[in-house]
Amino acid sequence: MKWKGRLAFRQFIPAKRNRSYVQDMVIYTGSTTHIRHIEGLGISGSVVTTLLDPYLGKGNTIYEDNWYSSPSLFQHLLSHSTGACGTVWAKRRGMSVFTGKMMKGQVEHRQNRTQLVGKWHDKRDVLILTTVITSLEFRTSLMRGLLEEYGTTRCPPKGGRPALDTPLRLTARHFPTEVPQTTGQGSSTRLHCKVCLYSSRKRKERRLTRYMCVACNTLLCVDPCFAKLLKKQKNK
């Protein structure tokens, strides 16, 4: 891919994370360039599959730039046991549509059975597409990281109560898990959330969820009922 920078000389910055080496390449020689075209992937997707052909079906993960990323390409790679992750253009065919203006630092996501797309707004919108992690896995990993970093109580030098009195051991055992599949309900088992069902509001909600807390053996919505129940147990 042609570099569009303004420097007239080549540079090498060892501190950059993207330093590496070239594993394979295809030199473009016009219409006679050897590229295995695959219907529905376009030129950029066909270039990726041509270069990856010896490495497909081995459980590898590829990270791409938005020039190559697309839902159709990622689905094709996933069907060949190859994960993919990378920035993506919002106007790619098959992309989820995000409506509404986002504030700086705000994050949204859309997910289907195989792909997750996240949108983050800083000075501009940045979209990331992946098949290697789900929204639940990301949140669980984030929670575990926070517990590992802040999950130790600090006692004052002269004794007394710890500086942190939050029962983190309780929280550490409570993680949202998918409800086990039952016969006749297919691959998506959904039951009523306990917090929504027994809400104290006059107009009770009835929301279906496919997540539960194993420690409590309770069906819960990931957001916000999971946090509500933990807060209630902590204050008992």
From TrEMBL:
Residue ranges of domain PiggyBac transposable element-derived protein in the record: 3-142
Domain PiggyBac transposable element-derived protein 4 C-terminal zinc-finger: 186-227
A Pfam family per the record: zf-Tnp_2
Domain of life: Eukaryota
Protein name: PiggyBac transposable element-derived protein 4
The species this protein was found in: Culter alburnus (Topmouth culter)
